[in-house]
């Protein structure tokens, strides 16, 4: 009996080890899936507010009839719930501030006219077969919008540069004058900075607005936008792959 008890105890220990091992494996698998869920492998665009942008999909099905297998969705900069912008090639009217500025090209790319800060976010293109089953995973595009404004008060001018992104903004925003950092090279210029926003104040007798450039940087990106009051309406977004 004692010999049987030792064997039983040993078997119980092995069973517990197997259970722990299986639990660890399930935990590792769950963690791996969570990591995959938060990875982003699409494209990202920077666009100046007021410009136009065309978003393309990497998984587009060929030979569609008026893009009847294509749906575009949008999730705003605050990670808001996704809304349909285009359903099977047809513009949806739920997004009233956006729908009148949307169109779909012959190859089912999404065109956004006169971009505003509200257009910053993640755009997902979804493909379907004829019976209505989704084909493959969504093709995702992140759009960041840069806005620059000018305010004049007699001989004083204030320029503001802000970037609007999907999720938390990780960019450093600063002003350059003739290509040099304002903060480090122009002590008589007053600047103020907060999260993804930078403001500069100056006298018109000393500086010219069109010599200022707004620079956005992070670990992977360096984008520069020269200040102009009225950006061209036909201007493609600047694209970076991530």
Automatic annotation (TrEMBL):
Protein name: Ig-like domain-containing protein
MF-aspect GO terms: MHC class II protein binding; protein tyrosine kinase binding
Domain of life: Eukaryota
Swiss-Prot/TrEMBL GO biological process terms: interleukin-15-mediated signaling pathway; positive regulation of ERK1 and ERK2 cascade; T cell activation
PANTHER family: DIVERSE IMMUNOGLOBULIN DOMAIN-CONTAINING PROTEIN 1.1 ISOFORM X1-RELATED (PTHR11422:SF5), T-CELL SURFACE GLYCOPROTEIN CD4 (PTHR11422)
Pfam families: V-set
A single cellular component GO annotation: membrane raft
Domain Ig-like: 71-144, 155-228
